[in-house]
Write a sequence for this structure.
């Protein structure tokens, strides 16, 4: 067995018939060839068996605990606002002095019963922080803080008959343990996806106290791992709500245009432009119910029956105006069961690939994109609101974009919802970034569960066309298998979207960047990041390059760019000047225009964003300066290069134009 540079054994895995995972190496002579074939077969079967078993287990364990979707259209009570906090770097409120979990931790919110009793904490006399919001940007002393903070919110609640209550967190970074009135509700790992716990039996009319231990320590085996190029914002970074639902309620549903079944081996196929297909899942005891799905503006009213598990699959035809960036038509869809009723605003469109083209509603489209971090506009904080989403996507629109790559983790739900309304196509990804521990089973479970939560929340958004599995991960067999397990999960949860990943290129000779990452076999669309003219030579280097790919698939150049301090002007050879960045973009445009299989671009990045990897005084000061818009909201010169390039592309579709030339 060979060992790759990362020290992981290279194994032969079951191959997709059309995309063999491993290149065949010619046998030196017949006997050796046969012998190695038998050995390989033996190892392959063995590993396949164990691999499949492991995947079975991870699949079971990674399903989030009954995540409720479409919070915006449900009855909710907000718990946003001021929460009292205790900063606890030594986790004193969780462990005793023998470092064992304590029975009387801070989650008990204990008060001294008399003047002699010793209690060494008091939420009510402690500071407070705003929720939603990261803690780093709210207090100077928390700017670099990585560790535990305890949050407490006290509230009264009017208990309603025949109603179940859940506490819902939009996201908390990174590990959260949640308690209500001193009782543990559960835990959640992962900083960018929602989770909820039922509190029907625990909540009371008066003096509830909800306590959350949030720990944002980076972990080597985490997703992401210890090394990233963005700020590790900690805390209850997104909204917290109580959700009130009937005893049996509509928990989840999937309503999109029908597409053909996709697997990790078969590319996603766009399907019908008029057949709506999906499913509904009830939660509660009254599982067998009659359900109607109504789309009033399309004259649709269909009735179905859920089975004993509260589940129904359906399919029906409808005359629909298709959703697109030019016409982001959303329909009110009303789902009504015997016990619950819920509406959503849903767009219908198809997405598929054909050779190197991406087809939206059956027609080729060039993705005029930009990458976005969840950095609040003109602020040091993490973005969390509808207003933030409107500003960020508004800027992308102003740049003539029809596409955004939401890097490097699932953004708050206002982003895809606002994108739905504005007609912006979305690439959504999980933080499988750089040097993940591929061999670790619990790391895979963690990635699978973050992926599942992202898809569960956003699978009804027309704007979302791409699920991305990873960013710039080092090629190797353990990594390929890990990512392939993610692809399988994504396709099983959602056969309608395209799968992608941001990968890196290799070189053939000096001047031929080639897209040949073996994981490319498992994606529908290849993302490729490159920094020619910034990390790799100077901008003129772009003139020398001719791109190549080994796959007949669409390519998005998912990152390129360079840094500039907003307002700093010099000549085009001076690093950090707006002129250098502008020149780099001009050179990039010339190079990119010549790539025959290019289906989209998303330069790095819309706005400057905070990163501890960027300390250069007076230039970076902990900001990654590759934004096309500064941290003050000023557009840099390169913004206009992109704006002009995309303006040109609005009327000139390179995919079609190239076809005409051939
Ligand atoms: C990359 C990463 C991105 C970084 C960027 C940079 O390749 O994907 O997360 O922020 O480069 O600025 O170096």
């Amino acid at each position: 067995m060979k060992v790759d540079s990362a020290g992981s054994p290279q194994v032969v895995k079951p191959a997709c018939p059309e995309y063999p995972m491993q290149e065949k190496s010619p046998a030196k002579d017949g006997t050796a060839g046969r012998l190695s074939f038998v050995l390989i077969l033996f190892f392959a079967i063995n590993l396949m068996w164990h691999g499949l078993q492991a995947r079975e287990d991870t699949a079971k364990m990674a399903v989030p605990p009954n995540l409720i979707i479409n919070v915006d259209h449900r009855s909710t009570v907000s718990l946003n606002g001021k929460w009292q906090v205790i900063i606890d770097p030594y986790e004193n409120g969780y462990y005793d002095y023998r470092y064992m979990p304590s029975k009387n931790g801070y989650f008990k919110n204990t008060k001294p019963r008399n003047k002699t009793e010793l209690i060494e904490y008091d939420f009510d006399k402690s500071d407070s922080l705003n929720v939603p919001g990261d803690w780093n940007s709210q207090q100077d002393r928390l700017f670099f803080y990585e560790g535990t903070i305890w949050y407490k919110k006290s509230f009264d609640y009017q208990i309603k008959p025949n109603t179940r209550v859940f506490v819902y967190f939009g996201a908390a970074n990174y590990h959260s343990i949640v308690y209500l009135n001193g009782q543990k509700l559960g835990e959640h790992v992962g900083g960018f996806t929602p989770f909820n716990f039922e509190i029907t039996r625990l909540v009371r009319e008066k003096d509830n106290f909800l306590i959350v231990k949030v720990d944002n320590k980076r972990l080597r085996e985490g997703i992401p791992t210890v090394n990233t190029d963005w700020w590790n914002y900690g805390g209850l970074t997104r909204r917290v709500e109580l959700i009130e639902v009937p005893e049996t309620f509509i928990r989840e549903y999937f309503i999109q245009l029908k597409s053909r079944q996709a697997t990790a081996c078969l590319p996603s196929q766009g399907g019908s432009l008029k057949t709506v297909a999906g499913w509904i899942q009830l939660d509660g005891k009254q599982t067998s119910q009659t359900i109607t799905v109504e789309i009033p503006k399309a004259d649709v009213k269909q009735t179905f029956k859920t089975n004993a598990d509260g589940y129904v699959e359906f399919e029906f035809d409808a005359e629909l105006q298709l959703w697109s960036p030019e016409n982001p038509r959303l329909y009110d869809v009303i789902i009504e069961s015997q016990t619950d009723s819920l509406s959503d605003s849903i767009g219908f469109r198809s997405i598929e690939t054909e050779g190197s083209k991406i087809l939206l509603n059956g027609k080729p489209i060039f993705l005029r994109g930009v990458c976005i971090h969840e950095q609040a506009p003109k602020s040091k904080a993490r973005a969390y609101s509808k207003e933030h989403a409107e500003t960020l996507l508004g800027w992308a629109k102003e740049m003539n974009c029809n596409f955004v790559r939401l890097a490097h983790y699932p953004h708050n739900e206002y982003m895809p919802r606002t994108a739905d309304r504005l007609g912006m196509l979305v690439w959504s990804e999980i933080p499988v970034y750089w040097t993940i521990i591929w061999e670790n089973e619990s790391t895979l479970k963690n990635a699978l569960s973050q992926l599942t939560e992202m898809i569960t929340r956003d699978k009804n958004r027309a704007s979302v066309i791409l699920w991305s599995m990873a960013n710039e991960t080092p090629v190797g067999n353990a990594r390929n298998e890990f990512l392939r397990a993610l692809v399988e999960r994504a396709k099983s949860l959602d056969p309608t979207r395209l799968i992608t990943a941001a990968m890196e290129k290799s070189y053939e000779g000096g001047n031929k960047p080639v897209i040949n990452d073996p994981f490319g076999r498992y994606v529908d669309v290849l993302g490729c990041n490159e920094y020619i003219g910034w990390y790799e030579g100077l901008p003129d280097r772009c003139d020398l390059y001719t791109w190549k790919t080994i796959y007949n698939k669409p390519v998005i150049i998912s990152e390129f760019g360079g840094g500039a301090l907003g307002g700093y002007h010099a000549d085009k050879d001076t690093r950090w000047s707006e002129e250098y960045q502008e020149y780099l973009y001009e050179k990039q445009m010339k190079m990119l225009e010549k790539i025959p299989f290019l289906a989209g671009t998303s330069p790095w990045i819309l706005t400057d964003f905070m990163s501890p990897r960027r300390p250069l005084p007076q230039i970076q000061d902990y900001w990654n300066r590759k934004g096309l818009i500064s941290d003050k909201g000023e557009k840099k010169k390169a913004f206009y290069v992109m704006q002009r390039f995309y303006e040109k592309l609005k009327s000139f579709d390179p995919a079609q134009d190239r076809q005409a030339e051939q």
Notes: Residues 1-64 have pLDDT under 50 and may be disordered. The radius of gyration is 26 Å. The pocket of GCB is lined by residues 229, 408, 471-472, 529, 559, 604, 624, 626 (CB under 6 Å). The helical segments are 30-61, 386-398, 414-422, 441-458, 477-493, 578-593, 637-651, 654-661.
